[in-house]
Amino acid sequence: xxxxxxxxxxxxxxxxxxxxxxxxxxxxxxxxxxxxxxxxxxxxxxxxxxxxxxxxxxxxxxxxxxxxxxxxxxxxxxxxxxxxxxxxxxxxxxxxxxxxxxxxxxxxxxxxxxxxxxxxxxxxxxxxxxxxxxxxxxxxxxxxxxxxxxxxxxxxxxxxxxxxxxxxxxxxxxxxxxxxxxxxxxxxxxxxxxxxxxxxxxxxxxxxxxxxxxxxxxxxxxxxxxxxxxxxxxxxxxxxxxxxxxxxxxxxxxxxxxxxxxxxxxxxxxxxxxxxxxxxxxxxxxxxxxxxxxxxxxxxxxxxxxxxxxxxxxxxxxxxxxxxxxxxxxxxxxxxxxxxxxxxxxxxxxxxxxxxxxxxxxxxxxxxxxxxxxxxxxxxxxx
Length: 383
Description:
This is Caspase a. By secondary structure, the chain is α/β, with parallel strands linked by helices. The chain is 37% helix and 13% strand. It has helices spanning 2-8, 10-16, 19-31, 37-45, 50-62, 66-79, 81-86, 106-111, 121-131, 166-179, 192-203, 245-251, 329-341, 347-356; strands spanning 146-152, 182-188, 214-219, 222-223, 226-228, 241-243, 264-269, 281-282, 308-312, 321-323, 327-328, 367-369. The strands form three sheets. It has a six-stranded mixed sheet with strand order 2-1-3-7-9-12, with helices on both faces. Strands 4-5-6 form a three-stranded antiparallel sheet. A three-stranded antiparallel sheet has the order 8-10-11.
């Protein structure tokens, strides 16, 4: 029954719906003859805060029964798809999964969207009005030039290191970034030196002056602190690697002034050590390790490195897993979470939800690293 559905989603609706959407819903429900003039007036006149108005309208409608509740659910979907999905009202979209991959709870699986849900103008306006000082200011879509860098190593000189399924990851990530409004600078099958040159060249792009943020996504085999180039060979003293630290160096305040005070999001799909998995292909070469000997310095005190956040596919010394057909579990979960929740969650909450997908999968746990964001970063997809 629809009234029971509204009862179960009541708290989420009260916490999430914005005041402009409440006003639109009142007009809609009046037009649908769910509420009369006196009832719609009482919602705003007798309740001063947004939460009180939200509580009043949902309680008033659900008490009218299933038909009235069905009409309200349809109007919520029309007016704010983000809240609609957050309430768990969307039709079930089963994620493609393999028997041993990280599982979704029934509630989470019910809410997964296969396409990126856009933010609403009302949500953006409301949250910027309420929390504007706590949010990185978004540039207007008509004048900005967002860029993202995507590097994916699939084929290596050592044929046994072929990353089957990595093309699927590349396809998914590129689609997500473009849907989020980023022009994608894409490279495939680079050496460690070529990766460094690509990141450095990317940091010099003039478009960053007209951008409000940047994404860097790198996918390859890896070891602790580094990503393998396509010429990597186990036992070779001249290891073909790219140090992850170089991403932060090339994009920091000193070397990329165009991105000062703008969020820089780093996604790394690569192993950081550890043993092979069981059935799944592991993005790690057995027996490899790397001690970079990093030392602490005053970079944060001097604000040379600020406004970064990175999400790595696994914790130190462990492996990350890849399905040869569907791609890595890490990218699969990023697609699910961003498609469904980027319309109303900031980046750190999105990362937390990605990590939550792995809670019942003890073989792998993504981890946030070098987070120096001083504000919340909302992507506002579609706006």
